[in-house]
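Subject: sequence -> structure tokens, single chain

Hey, anyone have a minute? Need the predicted structure for the following. Not urgent.
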Amino acid sequence: SVTTKSPSAIGTTSATLEGTISTGGTSTTPNFQYGTSATLDTYTQTSNGSASSSATLNPSASITGLSTNTTYYYRVIGEIGSTDTLGTYYGNILSFTTGKTLRTVTVSATSTTISLGQTTSLSTTLSAGSAGTTTYEVVNGLLYCSISGSTLTADATNTGTCSIRAIDDGDSTY
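Reply:
Had a minute. Here:
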């Protein structure tokens, strides 16, 4: 039997694929196929070692150069005997998603101190990637300020400090 196992060490551009192959003592060469097609109609195949006659193989393959925040599909395959005799057996197709690129987001305001009833404009700067639609919300100090779009308004009668949070495309909170 040929069984695809859950991957380990999934990073932003890499992962380690794993599987199990019961060979029945027949010379078997393990490999993996992976790609972004759920059916693996197009794929990259690893060269995962030489043939072995061990009763059970536990192959793994570290793959790199993957795209960030992308779902990949993969399976283990076992070339049992020669391809002319016993053939190639395929494990089940599983998937994983690589991580997002880490980035720093800086929220800035036209003015960090505003008078009662006055406004200031907010903006964000990203260290990597492109900005999506950014929304802002008050997380502390609702009595002292409010936000509409990217405009922060100080309350007309109460003084105090408020904290804000920027949310980029509903994807990540900073």
